[in-house]
Write a structure and sequence with these properties.
The chain is α+β, with helices and mostly antiparallel strands. The protein has three helices and three strands, in the order αβββαα.
Length: about 110
């Protein structure tokens, strides 16, 4: 069975693209700390083993991603952001909502 992370579009593997996404999202969070948060636990106390939740409360709506603990938790913990005990209640946003909310926010800035 092929490791899906090693599948490539001819330019990047899935693993590389996830690394890019995580790096870019954390850079965005750190550039707007007043909008950003991260937590090991969902609002109901549940967790995804090996992952945490990172998000932003934008004027256009909430966005969030599950991120691998290693190495991203330590990188955020070493920043000016403080982890929350619980993530904010998820508003039901979809992956497409994240794209739309980011785009609307970026165009308004």
């Amino acid at each position: 069975m092929t490791d899906k992370g090693k599948i490539s579009d001819g330019y990047h593997t899935f693993d590389e693209l996830y690394e890019h996404r995580a790096s870019l999202f954390i850079a965005l969070m750190l550039s707007h700390p007043q909008l950003s948060w991260f937590s090991a636990k969902h609002d109901d106390g549940s967790i995804y083993d090996g992952f945490f939740i990172a998000g932003m409360d934008l004027p256009t709506g909430q966005i969030s991603y599950h991120m691998p603990l290693d190495p991203w938790w330590d990188r955020l913990s070493d920043s000016q952001l403080m982890p929350r005990i619980y993530a904010p209640k998820w508003d039901g946003h979809t992956p497409q909502d994240v794209i739309d909310r980011l785009a609307r926010w970026a165009y308004v800035l």
